[in-house]
Amino acid sequence: MESSDLGAVWLTLKLATIVTVLLLIIGTPIAWWLARTRSAFKGMVGAIVALPLVLPPTVLGFYLLITMGPNGPVGQLTQSLGLGLLPFTFPGLVIASVFYSLPFAVQPIQNAFEAIGERPLEVAATLRASPWDTFWSVAVPLAKPGFVSGAILGFAHTVGEFGIVLMIGGNIPDKTRVVSVQIYDHVEALEYTQAHWLAGGMVLFSFLVLLGLYTFNPARRKTL
Known about the structure:
The structure is a single chain. By secondary structure, the chain is mostly helical. It has one domain (3-37, 87-218): MetI-like (MetI-like fold), CATH 1.10.3720. Helix content is 78%, strand content 0%.
């Protein structure tokens, strides 16, 4: 591999790791609320979270680009705070990736929370456990398979992104050029050998991720 290929691989792994941590932090309270609420807004919130599943990545990337651009509300805020603009930067890439991969983390965790049922939570309440203690001592351990699935899927989905990272991050070496964009560059330059190495690595990585998910995750094994 060329040094630019290795740089793209490292940047991709760095991006996916940071995004996965943020997905778990942001997605867990959303998943808990969706699993427990009886609000009339549940369907609307669930639909908003799931939008990246059906929207073309370029559509989501376009609107994020507008929002974070110089005339967008987020862009004006970051400029007023002296942070500059987020598009075509690594932090902007992280934010876009979190939006794009959010349903891949939220939905497995939500399903795991819903599968717990009311009984364990009611028992904890009778033992005078606070809602906070019940969540961390009962709900989270019982929903562990959902967290594993959400983390794996969120990580893998971030690694495989192309459209949205190209829209928001562009193609800046060692800053925003991830593996998928590097493969695109090789193909454009008719460098098929280099493209094969990276593309083959992506195929192998994706297979191993799914193999691990379906082999070692108890929740997945029960559905087979």
